[in-house]
Structure formats: structure tokens, C-alpha cells
Amino acid sequence: xxxxxxxxxxxxxxxxxxxxxxxxxxxxxxxxxxxxxxxxxxxxxxxxxxxxxxxxxxxxxxxxxxxxxxxxxxxxxxxxxxxxxxxxxxxxxxxxxxxxxxxxxxxxxxxxxxxxxxxxxxxxxxxxxxxxxxxxxxxxxxxxxxxxxxxxxxxxxxxxxxxxxxxxxxxxxxxxxxxxxxxxxxxxxxxxxxxxxxxxxxxxxxxxxxxxxxxxxxxxxxxxxxxxxxxxxxxxxxxxxxxxxxxxxxxxxxxxxxxxxxxxxxxxxxxxxxxxxxxxxxxxxxxxxxxxxxxxxxxxxxxxxxxxxxxxxxxxxxxxxxxxxxxxxxxxxxxxxxxxxxxxxxxxxxxxxxxxxxxxxxxxxxx
Length: 367
What we know:
- The chain has helices at 2-13, 33-36, 45-59, 72-81, 102-113, 127-136, 149-157, 169-179, 181-190, 194-201, 215-224, 237-242, 294-306, 325-334, 348-351, and strands at 19-22, 63-68, 94-97, 120-124, 141-144, 204-209, 248-256, 261-273, 276-284, 313-316, 343-346, 360-364.
- It is of the alpha/beta class and 367 residues long.
- The relative contact order is 0.11.
- The model has no long low-confidence stretch (mean pLDDT 90).
């Protein structure tokens, strides 16, 4: 019954959680770092189980965040000394070690990962900290760590939204991809212009028409993406298959550079009716945002969909949600006056678009 409720049903109907933010003292180990020194902290059997479970989550593509009231240099020394810990400091995509209020640290971590507050679980042994985060960030799911760390691991194991029916290769790439973002930002700052940045980074977009081997991934993009999801259609696998029939097209977009392979990060779904193409959905994963690639991803995918088909007009049907303003803002940048139900654009928007010269493009045909 517990698996049915917390795993199978929730895995089918609830949006997946993307991160676990966890405290250090009396949570990942027994003791207080500032009082007991690294060598004096207790790694019990239960703490071992908890750390191994968190490491398993990280290896399945779920972000780990460290939120602790300690000095950063002390935290670094802790993980340098305690080589018996299953977790290493490098396993955390977010490290917030300061004396700030913990809800502020959680907010900074969410901004770094570019995810919403409804995508994270916060774990802390201090009931006051748990209550503070719950009050300040009501969308965050909170767990009070038990004195028996194995019970904390069990609480996480049966937290709805953390369990997955399966793991896709793109899920496993998420953590590695995020760690490369700081290097990308530094490279963009140092580059003379955007084309130099793209060329030095080796950015490549691959457009795949009707990729039947990626139907599950395309459905995951529709179900999980909130920020750049233009129509919010929330499509499951049979719905995606329907867009691979005559008169329609499903375009998957993959992204890679010399720092990491991001996998399939975008999807555009198109229907054709006489001289008009209807763009039913445009989705870009949050981890691909912030790289100034939206025009190349979306307009490039539409161009691939329209190859060999004579249309004069494009129609979009955007839907306003609680968090998809980035997608609506992108559409407004194309035509500020037409964002609304059944927005119409001339096909010249696609025909006149040119990919940046520093970007590599490849196209894979229908299977």
C-alpha cells in the first residue's frame, strides 16, 4: 500500500521533485561540526544508509544541495578529512554554508539550479529551521530529520515525487550539465562576441524529426518543464506518437558542447493545415535556458518541420501559467503585438532567421 501510494500513483500523476537540500549537523552525521571537529563527528550505520541513499539520488539525476549554518572553509575541511563519508563535497550541486537564514540559502540554491520551490525537499533536524523554511517557502516539501538517520532515509524513499518509474539518459546528464554552467558563464564573459563564445565552446544543436526512440523523453519534457512550456499541454507518450503521423511533425532538439552533452532538451510540435502551420507546443528544458539559444532551438526546429512543405503563416496558441513567463516573453520578442490566443506570424520569421556562425548544426531524418 505504501509503494502504491508513494511510488506508483504519485509517479504517474505528480510532477517530479528535482532536488534534495539537506542540513549537515545531526543530519548527515551525529554531532556539531563547530564543536566536535571533523574527526569527532559520528558516522553511524544509519547515517551511512542516509548518505548512500542521497548518493543514489544524485546518480539518478536528482540535484543535491547542502544548506548548513557553518563556515564554508570548515565544511570543505570536513569533507577533506572524512574520507569515510559516502558523500563527497563534489556530489552537491549547491553548497550554502553561512549564517544566513536557511530559507534565504534555499532561495539562492533554487536560483542557481534554475528550478522552482515546488521541486525541492528540505531536510533538517532542527524543528525551528524546518518551520522557518515551510513558512517562508510554502511550496517546499520539508522533512524533519530523525535521530535515527535510517528513518530519515526511509522518509525520503517514500516522499512522493522522488521515486521514478525509470531513468532516462538525459536525467543522468542533468547534474553534470549544471556543474558546467559556471564555466560557460565565465567563457561568455571572456569572449569578444557571441559567435566567438559559441565557437570556443563548440556548441552543437541536433534536430531530429519524429524521433521514435525518444518518445518517453519528449513526454517527460512536456510533463516536467514549467518555465519554457509555451502551451502547457502536458502530453503523455501516446499523445507524442500522434504528432508523428502524416500532417504533423514532432521535432526533438539535442544540445551538446565541449563541456557536457545535455541530451534532448527541446521539443516543437507542429500541425499542417493548407497553407498554415500550427505550432501546438514549444518546450525547452530549464537547464538549457540562460545560454541565449532559444531562437536557434525553436526557429531551427520549426524550419526542420516545414522542410518541403509550402506554408505562408505560422500560428501559435500560448497559454499563460504560473511559471511559464520565459516562454511567453520569447514569443513577445518575435512579435510584441500578437501574443494571445491563436497568435499569427508570417513564415518569413523562420525563413529570415540565420543561425549564429559559431554554432554547429546537424539534422537527423525521420526513422
